[in-house]
Specification:
The structure holds 2 protein chains of 2 kinds. Chain A has 14 helices and 11 strands. By secondary structure, chain A is an alpha/beta fold. In chain A, α4 packs across α14. Chain B has one domain: OB fold (Dihydrolipoamide Acetyltransferase, E2P). Chain B is built from 3 helices and 12 strands, in the order ααββββββββββαββ. Chain B is of the alpha+beta class. Helix content of chain B is about 15%, strand content about 30%. Classes of the chains: A alpha/beta, B alpha+beta. The complex binds zinc ion (ZN).
């Protein structure tokens, strides 16, 4: 291995996810960081460096949001960086934390992900319009949902996927979310397929109950080098593979039916982890699911299903939490069942894989034995894939 | 697992004075020059022409046009005029505005793969003359259907993507 250090995960923490939090972004970051440090059995004095991730400044109305967050993230007097790849940020933060330690430069790193979307008025969706090209797209009167609806329709029609199958994904994740201590009020629940299918059409084929909500929240994880981790009493979880990849910003020149960027990111992570058959070697997965279609789309990009086959496997229950033969997907409840404070949502997915591997996921613990799991996020102009594989 | 922290606010708490609030309305104004490639593209639209660039190395014909190829990573200087017509790559029927308010009549964003450009090379635009209800619109449109641009009259064109009013289904 060309790295100086093997990297372990020592602890994780989240805040609740909420439509509107009283706490400021800095306060949310502090709560998540404190919870993660307590889980790891460490204090801030044990931390060598800090990485923070948070999405567009436009949500908060605070310029240089990384610097604003620094004190809440525990970065005072330490080497610190903020990184940002849109919705992919949560998982990418752990990748950045990983290379701080893998480089041999640091023994411990605290990674903090925070998002507070609620301040932006009249609706945080407006903050995203600036992702479209200012000459060839914005004058058409764009809105954020278009791009996802266009991608979903291309995927759906390429493979002839029925709407019921997407509803089934939303149903699974919203049920799984009932058991998550961070779940945003009103998001998780036991919905029937009929209720989901009858929910309001937002931008066809995207419907209300197949979209994740607007959320505030934070999450954090503590990483350490092998020599540091060996001193701890709890057996660590290891970061076995990381991958990230970016597709072109000319999104109308891509075939949206398949997430090419994610296949590349996944192959990078599988190669590092020495995984030749991911369907055999990945035992639990947290694919990024801001939309119901996106979970299936991403499972294909992760090579856990052939192109067009993730929906068929969903119909067979292959991705359910209690599956014996399949691969449980989004046992946390995902963004559809827990909430979507953008960067923090990716951290929630990483934390779930960590808890599943530690056998600490409580009522969400999957039935099959898990030795290796994968968390993934997606973002920028729906073009970036970020992947972390953990094992025990 | 311990319950996590965080204080969830209700809508009522925000309007009742229970929580103290502070507001800020930035007055942001930007002026963008359109750059080398898009200036020429917008000039073309004003003249009623849809222009693309062609990479001499990978032979792809690209729209929106650029003066470099992101695959071959080399400059492009060759311009071609496209006929304007194309086929539907994907479409949506949108009932929400940018601020998440609802629309009574939907908008129909579309990615149009342009005739004369390389396969899969499309631009974002809107469909028109497709009806006003979801059933009607999804009944009429299909991926792969041929479409034509509906241009503004020359006197109204200003060198903008909206010089094409919308695309409509091609006849026949
Ligand atoms: Zn080229």
């Amino acid at each position: 291995m060309p790295y100086q250090n093997r990297v372990a995960v020592l602890g994780a923490g989240l805040t609740r996810f909420m439509r509107r939090a009283l706490e400021t972004p800095k306060e949310l970051a502090f709560e998540a960081a404190k919870t993660a440090l307590e889980d790891a059995g460490l204090t801030i004095a044990d931390i060598d460096c800090v990485v923070s991730v948070t999405a567009p400044e436009a949500f908060d109305g605070v310029h240089m949001n990384g610097e604003y967050l620094a004190d809440g993230a525990g970065a005072w007097g330490k080497p610190y960086m903020r990184t940002y790849v849109g919705g992919g940020s949560g998982v990418f933060g752990l990748v950045a934390g990983w290379y701080h330690i893998a480089s041999g430069h640091f023994d411990t790193c605290l990674v903090v992900a925070e998002e507070k979307m609620s301040p932006a008025l009249p609706h945080p969706q407006g903050a995203f319009n600036a992702i479209y090209d200012q000459f060839t797209e914005r004058p058409l009167g764009v809105n954020l949902l278009w791009i996802f609806a266009l991608e979903m329709n291309r995927y759906m029609q390429t493979h002839g996927i029925p709407m019921e199958t997407f509803a089934r994904v939303a149903q699974k994740n919203k049920r799984n979310g009932i058991d998550h201590p961070s779940a945003q009020p009103g998001i998780a629940g036991d919905f029937t397929i009929e209720q989901i299918m009858a929910s309001e059409v937002m931008a066809w084929p995207v419907q209300r109950l197949m979209v994740s909500p607007i959320s505030d929240g934070a999450g954090a994880m503590v990483l350490a080098s092998e020599r540091f981790a060996r001193r701890m009493s709890r057996p660590p979880v290891w970061i076995e593979g990381v991958g990230w990849n970016l597709d072109t910003s000319y999104w109308t020149n891509r075939d949206l039916y398949y997430p090419r960027y994610l296949e590349k990111a996944a192959r990078m992570a599988y190669e590092m982890a020495g995984i030749s058959d991911p369907r055999r070697d990945i035992h639990v997965v947290e694919p990024y699911d801001p939309f119901a279609y996106k979970e299936l789309h991403h499972l294909e990009g992760l090579l856990l299903a052939d192109k067009g086959q993730a929906p068929r496997l969903a119909e067979e229950g292959f991705w359910e939490r209690d599956t014996a033969q399949g691969i449980p997907a989004s046992p946390s409840g995902g963004l559809l069942g827990v909430g979507n404070p953008i960067a923090a949502a990716g951290m929630m997915k990483l934390a779930e894989i960590y808890w599943q591997l530690q056998g600490q996921a409580g009522p969400r613990q999957v039935k099959r034995e898990v030795r290796r799991g994968l968390a993934q996020a997606w973002g920028d102009l729906m073009q970036v894939g970020t992947v972390v594989i953990m094992g025990r | 697992m311990e319950p996590f922290s965080g204080t969830s606010l209700t809508d009522h708490a925000l309007v009742s004075g229970e929580v103290l609030l502070s507001f800020w309305q930035p007055k942001a104004l930007y002026r963008w020059d359109a750059g080398v490639a898009i200036s020429a593209f917008l000039d073309g639209l004003k003249a009623g022409k849809l222009l693309a660039t062609r990479c001499p190395e990978c032979r792809r014909t690209l729209a929106p046009p650029r003066v470099f190829c992101e695959l071959c990573f080399r400059p492009i200087g060759d311009w071609v005029e496209l006929p304007g017509a194309g086929t539907i790559n994907t479409y949506s029927v949108s009932y929400v505005n940018w601020d998440a308010t609802r629309r009574r009549t939907p908008e129909v964003p579309v990615v149009v793969e342009l005739d004369g450009a390389s396969p899969g090379i499309g631009i974002l635009h809107l469909m028109g003359e497709v009806g006003t209800t979801l059933e009607e619109i999804t009944g009429k449109l299909r991926i792969g259907a041929p479409v034509q641009p509906v241009w503004k009259p020359a006197a109204e064109r200003e060198g903008a993507i909206t010089d094409i009013r919308y695309f409509r289904l091609a006849e026949g």
